[in-house]
Specification:
Layout: H1 3-6, H2 9-12, H3 15-35, H4 42-45, E1 50-56, E2 63-69, E3 71-73, E4 76-81, H5 91-98, E5 101-106, E6 109-117, H6 120-133, H7 136-147, E7 153-159
Antiparallel strand pairs: 1-2, 1-5, 3-4, 4-7, 5-6, 6-7
Length: 160
């Protein structure tokens, strides 16, 4: 059973839960997925799935790997640049804007992808799907809008 069905989205998406989550989950889950070649994940253990997205750093030119919650639509992946509800965009999203070619690793399989930032209309169409995957996105969107006025970027990762 998904933790998002047991714990209210408002609590999961809250400021303090997000502050702890962003410091603990990504490094631990990344290490676990690397060690098991994608076969084990903390997020999967609580009923959610992650893909590992490898982008190229827009400043450094170095590969950067980020674990992301995702939804599938047709053969594509959809990811949300919520940055745990922080006021600024996540680095991985800015990396995709600078260079849309990336690699998604799912269940140990490396999949070349090309990212496309969704338009406002496309974003509105996939938002309900993303809320099914992770209801806290609405709380993040409210918090981000109130703190910085930015709109959370949503990307479609199309298989290359």
């Amino acid at each position: 059973m998904r933790i998002t069905r047991l714990v209210p989205a408002r609590l999961i998406g809250g400021k303090y839960a997000s502050a702890i989550g962003r410091r603990v989950f990504p490094p631990v889950d990344t290490a676990l997925q690397r060690a098991t070649r994608g076969r084990a994940s903390l997020t999967r253990a609580i009923g959610m799935r992650l893909l590992m997205l490898e982008t190229i750093g827009r400043r450094s030119g170095e590969p950067r790997v980020t674990p992301l919650i995702f939804a599938t639509q047709d053969s594509d992946f959809v990811v949300v640049g919520s940055n745990w509800g922080q006021a600024h965009n996540p680095a991985w999203a800015l990396n995709l804007v600078a260079n849309p070619d990336a690699v998604a690793t799912l269940d140990g399989e490396r999949i070349p992808v090309r990212a496309r930032r969704l338009t406002e209309q496309e974003r509105a169409e996939v938002w309900p799907l993303m809320l099914e995957v992770y209801p806290a996105y609405d709380e993040y969107a409210r918090r981000v809008q109130a703190s910085s006025g930015r709109e959370i970027m949503v990307f479609r990762l199309e298989r290359a």
